[in-house]
Amino acid sequence: MGAVLALPLLAVPSIGTILTFGASCCGAATCSAVCSACGKCNNSIATRIAYAFLLLLNSLLSWILLTPWAVKKLQAVLLDYVTINCAGHDCFGFAAVHRVNFALGLFHCILAGLLIGVKSSKDTRAALQNGYWGPKIVVWLGLIVGSFLIPNRFFEVWGNYVAFGGAVFFLLLGLVLLVDLAHTFAEFCIDKIEETDSGLWRGILIGSTLSMFLGSIAMTIVMYIFFAGSGCAMNQSAITINLVLLLTIAVLSIHPTIQASNPRAGLAQAATVSIYCTYLTLSAVAMEPDDKNCNPLIRATGTRKASIFIGAVVTFITCAYTTTRAATYGLALGSGKGSGAIALEEDDHAGGHGLVDTQPESRREMRAEALRRAVESGALPASALDESDDDDDDDDPKTGKYKNDDEKARVQYNYTIYHIIFMLATAWIATLLTQNIGGHIGQVGSRLCEHQTKPPIMYTASFAFFEALWDAGVTHVFVNLGSDHPSILEAIVKGQRETPHKFPKILTCPNEMVAMSLADGFARLTNRPQAVIVHVDVGTQGLGAAVHNASCGRAPVLIFAGLSPVTCEGELRGSRTEYIHWIQDVPDQRQIVGQYCRYSGEIKRGVNVKQLVNRALSFATSEPRGPVYLLGSREAMEEEIEPYSINQAHWTSVTLGGLTPPQVSLIADALIEAERPLLITGYSGRNHSVPAALVDLATAVPGLRVLDTGGSDMCFPSNHPAWLGLRYGVHEAIPKADVILVLDCDVPWIPTQCAPSPTAKIYHLDVDALKQQMPVFYIPALARFRVDAFTAISQLATYTTSTYSTRVQSAPYTERATALQESHKSTITHLQSLAIPEPDNTFQTSYLASRLRALLPEDTIFAIEAVTNAPSIHDQLRPHLPGTWINCGGGGLGWSGGGALGIKLAADEVVGGKGKGKFVCQIVGDGTFLFSVPGSVYWIAERYKIPILTIVLNNQGWNAPRKSLLLVHPEGLGSKVDNEELNISFAPTPDYAGIARAASGGKCWAGRAADVEGLEMKLKEAIEVVKGGRTAVLDAQLGGTVGKYQGE
């Protein structure tokens, strides 16, 4: 069990272990080096040293190629013909290491095939084994170069399956030979005891057996205490299974049936296998990567280094014995009688198995003695004694002929099996070097440089969270990250590297309100939900007025916030690690924004994170749309899960229908019968198909007029005669109307200022007819229907046209239509008369807006947050294209900064690329400009190259509070003082444009205008700057320069 678990983890890829691999594959390489130094090295040993040295060079090259630097240098040498890239992401060391080891493995495979059946050095093919080193080196290097011409995909399959299988076989071969080692050791001790009746050998056998069993028990106890805690089911299972198997082996080793078959079998063999397999199990759990809960060594650097060193030593011993014994077995299993070879008598202790148990000593003398006996018995002629073992007096490395040739009569090892073992060794080395075991290469032995292997790429709840967002259509995530987001950060890096084209774009936002406004603006233009990530309770509170705006404006936005960790003592990954984790732990974080959200929920486990994300988005995109809030603790978001997907077709929003036929006729008949019908709307233009449908209805019902009392979206075009413009609940048409149709509107009128006639028939069509977020709301409607605006208006227009087409041609209706046209012309003429400069050559809002209308592209999208100035701006801009007027949906000032950036991002994406979308102009009051956190807004604009034009309406402060005061206390004390005494004046004003320029690092265009000529010049300059890709901010100083910033 331990062997199976430790296959990829038995050793660490260090210089020390690489050296052991090279030494082990020649079996007795260390002793051979000593022999070579004495000048008495036999031919077979020299050959094995050479092949071991070749493996060592190959392993060092593999280790160097683990670094991206080496791969890039290699690609440069190959003139960039080869690009190391796997499945869309860089895999540097993985592919390079497997290429190099594949080349050496192929080299040994070719030699294994060519050397099948070689019995002695007299076979001409033996020269291929023992000589021709120059050509063989050239072939090896050629195979390496050729391997880099093979497609990467081949080595993805080779490395993950074929090489891994070879590594497994190599390790299993070592385990089989380990059993033989245990048997040999026990028999050797027993022989010594029987021969000498020595208490020393009896003590060695009993002591070593007992020590190995005690060591196995001690390691098992350590593993249970430190590596098998709560939640470590895999470790618990591995340790327990290993313990059960070892106990079973111990019992079987002394079972009567086993003893009858092999009396020399016993506990010594079982103890050897026990301690080795227990060590392998310990290695497996101790090298478990990136898991602080089931592996305490992750945090213990010293202990971890010690385990690496011990692992290298054990690996050296295991590899050396494996290859030595495998070569000997290969000779025995591959030999046979004949071919001129003289078979030596078997030792009595060989047990009849025909295997050579030890390396032969004095082979030359033994061969000479065998020849003499053969001549004496008549098996060979006497001339055989005249043949010298040293037929060649001189060495010939080219052909492999040496004067110390010890293989003239018989090879010392099976050449073919020897090369097959080397081929398996290359697979093992490649597998070890490319395993993500989290250690440092070069921590044991000599080190050329230090390289950190890549940590395992985990599939966590956080990564599944991002996958769910992308699959649901969320393309942008606006983030303000904190200590609750380690797994979020890991998932972002993983996604941006592995699937950059299928991962949401991440935009850093230094302020939470700006982040929320960005997502709001994007969603307002596209009706597609976007996401915001903030930091625990404080980040949630930082959303502030922006979450109110998204709720009132019905913008689909998904908010995710972390929770302070729920564990304190390291019970789970993500447990508390910082002081602030206690401070930011609150009783009910969801309640901070819960009343503004359509849904709020907690991610408690990673296994259903995608379902929770899609449930939240289903609420966000179902009418009435709005923000949703998810939160999750660090532990929950750190949870590793199996990758999975869900059927996105099963997660759609709830759609609204239209009116029933009786409802259609009820409303249509009332509109046709009315003398002064009026339609009041507020946000129906969110659906860009609605304005055209309203035009059809206004055309079908002569005399119908349309009033916008929300200014949230462009709901009805200004170039239609039925257009009455934008007014906030106060218009002379309201009390005069006899039939009023309210369509998607939060405040159709203000009863204390402008109430409808008591006899007016009122019908209410709305996606949110009950206004569920408003504790107090009601209008005296005869009927109210929760419907989709486009569907219902289209039904009414179709019904009216088909039913009353003849009737509306009569005089009363044509007269109404004519009157509307005349009234519309008169209105436009009046509005144009307001757009003139002041006598002192300064300007006010109307003139400024008229110049914007004249200079900006016709399809410019206006992000408006002008508060009291909004109606006059609307009058002059007179938007008529769907989606070109977007006002803050709520009352939280500061929306338009981030909102305009989000609108521009969306405009570009809709048409397929940065800079390709419509021109975006933000018009904002001076006080509101400061609320928008311009330091964050213009940093983001520059960081992500989002060009917008900002017009700051500088009127020295807040005028809205004065208006509110006068509505309640028209003759009060406040009505008789100036704004400074009311504490609503900003005089002297800040340098609004300078704030933006500073935030952008001096990149934003900044200008001021206080007179007509300056305005014309600065506007044209600013517009060109934005068209060129830079943001521009113009401080429009209404009424002149008094009390306003004029520079140094």
TrEMBL record:
Name of protein: Uncharacterized protein
The UniProt record lists the keyword Phosphoprotein: no
Regions of compositional bias (Acidic residues) in chain numbering: 386-396
Cell location: Membrane
Domain Thiamine pyrophosphate enzyme central: 667-769
Native species: Zymoseptoria tritici ST99CH_1A5
Residue intervals passing through the bilayer: 49-71, 102-118, 138-155, 161-182, 203-227, 233-254, 266-286, 306-323, 413-433
Record domain Thiamine pyrophosphate enzyme N-terminal TPP-binding: where: 461-589
Family as reported in the entry's similarity comment: Belongs to the TPP enzyme family. Belongs to the TDE1 family.
Segments forming domain Thiamine pyrophosphate enzyme TPP-binding: 877-1035
Pfam families the record matches: Serinc, TPP_enzyme_C, TPP_enzyme_M, TPP_enzyme_N
Source species, domain of life: Eukaryota
Residue segments, region Disordered: 382-404
Topological relation to the membrane, as annotated: Multi-pass membrane protein
Record-level Gene Ontology MF annotations: catalytic activity; magnesium ion binding; thiamine pyrophosphate binding
